[in-house]
Design goal:
This protein is α/β, with parallel strands linked by helices and about 140 residues long. The protein is built from 5 helices and 4 strands, in the order H-E-H-E-E-H-H-H-E. Strand 1, helix 2 and strand 2 form a beta-alpha-beta unit. Helix 4 packs antiparallel against helix 5. The longest helix has 19 residues.
């Protein structure tokens, strides 16, 4: 049996961070983890984004945080509505901010920090709306 990427406590911490962050915005955040990425991580993240149907949210303001742990690759993908509002270098800024967590092998803490930073930007452009529904699961999706 494959060893899980995170402990039960770490998994709960990531999911709780997503849930708390999504209370402050109408945006949707997902985390996807894989062992390896054999291509450009951004290209892979875009494929995963589509596979998870993240492009089908009402406001097109979903964000995917993608990690290939053994390959040490990481990307963040935003749907079209958020990408129209944030500068191109915004996602790269978050990646640079959390790289020290990954270098210190504090992967869970880095993911939670990325979720919080993404949430701050989503809140700015996509505040909570009345009768907002959670359109996407908050569970961590696991790939290869």
């Amino acid at each position: 049996m494959k060893k899980p990427f995170f402990t039960t406590d770490e998994t709960h911490q990531i999911i709780n961070t997503i849930q708390e962050t999504e209370k402050t915005t109408s945006g949707e955040i997902r985390v996807h983890i894989e062992s390896r990425c054999w291509q450009n991580p951004l290209r892979r993240a875009i494929l995963v984004f589509k596979k998870l149907n993240m492009h089908r949210t009402k406001l097109h303001n979903g964000i995917l945080i993608y990690l290939a742990l053994k390959s040490r690759k990481f990307a963040i993908v935003g749907d079209k509505s958020i990408n129209e509002k944030v500068p191109e270098e915004f996602w790269e800024g978050i990646i640079k901010n959390i790289q020290p967590y990954f270098q210190d092998k504090k992967i869970c803490n880095g993911i939670c920090e990325a979720i919080r930073q993404v949430g701050e930007k989503l809140q700015e452009f996509f505040p909570p709306v009345k009768n907002d529904e959670d359109e996407l699961t908050n569970e961590i999706s696991i790939g290869n």
